[in-house]
Design a protein that fits this description.
This protein has 214 residues and is an alpha/beta fold. It has a single domain, classed as Vaccinia Virus protein VP39 (Rossmann fold, 3-Layer(aba) Sandwich). Helices cover 36% and strands 21% of the residues. A seven-stranded mixed β-sheet has the order 3-2-1-4-5-7-6, sandwiched between helices. It is globular, with a radius of gyration of 17 Å. The model has no long low-confidence stretch (mean pLDDT 93).
Length: 214
C-alpha cells in the first residue's frame, strides 16, 4: 500500500455520503491498488475494479490482491466491459487529463443510475501551493493547462452529472513527507502550515452523481 496516501484515502471515506458495504466500486487511476484494498478491508465492498495506464503498477496491484475480490487492468480509460458501478473514485487524476470530457463521459457510462463519482482534486488554479508546483513541472511532465474547479464542474455537468463539492475531513496530516516544499524555489515560509492549508482548504472532493433517471 502506498503508505503516504493512506491518510487521504481515509479522509475520502470519512467525507463521502455513501455506505460502500456490499457495493461494486471503480477506482480510476488506481496505481498499485492500495485504495481498493483499503475499501475492501475497511468498508467491506463486494468487488473493486481499478485501471491505470502504468502496466508495472497494475502488475503490483494484482500481486497484492491476496484473497480480495479485486480486478485490475492496464488502461487509460474505463474498459468497455466494466459497468453498473455503485460508486467510483479517483485521487489526483483529473489534473493529469488532457481530455476531461472523454473521461467524464466514460465514468458516466460506467456508473449505475443514482451512483456517484468522488474525485479528489488538489492541483487546480485555486490552490496556491499546487499552482506553484504546476508552473515548475508542467513542461517536464507534459501536463495540461491548470484547470479551474468551476470549469471542471461545468464540464461534468455537460455530460449529465449533478455536481457538488466538499472539503475533505482530513484530520491529522503526517509531518513525515511534508517537511519540504512542493517544488524547489518556493517560499521558504512555515512548510507545515502551508501543507495544512493545502489539505484543509484546497484539496477538494468533487462529487458527480449520475441522476436516477439518467
Amino acid at each position: 500500500m502506498q503508505e503516504e496516501h493512506v491518510f487521504v484515502w481515509n479522509a475520502m471515506v470519512d467525507t463521502i455520503d455513501a455506505d460502500l458495504a456490499g457495493r461494486r466500486v471503480l477506482d480510476a487511476g488506481c496505481n498499485r491498488g492500495g485504495f481498493l484494498r483499503l475499501l475492501y478491508d475497511r468498508c467491506g465492498i463486494a468487488e473493486g475494479y481499478g485501471y491505470d495506464p502504468a502496466p508495472g503498477a497494475i502488475e503490483d496491484a494484482r500481486r497484492l490482491i491476496a484473497r480480495r475480490p479485486l480486478h485490475f487492468e492496464a488502461a487509460d480509460r474505463v474498459p468497455h466491459s466494466w459497468s453498473d458501478f455503485d460508486a467510483a473514485f479517483s485521487h489526483e487524476v483529473l489534473y493529469l487529463l488532457h481530455d476531461l470530457s472523454t473521461h467524464a463521459a466514460a465514468i458516466y457510462a460506467a456508473l449505475a443510475p443514482g451512483a456517484s463519482y468522488y474525485a479528489v482534486m488538489g492541483v487546480h488554479d485555486g490552490s496556491p501551493l499546487m499552482a506553484e508546483w504546476h508552473r515548475a513541472h508542467a513542461a517536464e511532465l507534459e501536463l495540461p493547462e491548470l484547470h479551474r474547479i468551476d470549469d471542471v464542474v461545468e464540464l461534468f455537468q455537460a455530460v449529465g452529472f449533478e455536481a457538488a463539492v466538499a472539503r475533505l475531513r482530513i484530520g491529522f496530516i503526517p509531518a513525515a513527507g511534508h517537511d519540504g516544499d512542493a517544488c524547489a524555489g518556493s517560499d521558504p515560509g512555515p512548510r507545515l502550515v502551508r501543507w495544512l492549508e493545502y489539505y484543509n482548504d484546497h484539496k477538494l472532493l468533487l462529487r458527480f452523481t449520475r441522476p436516477i433517471a439518467g
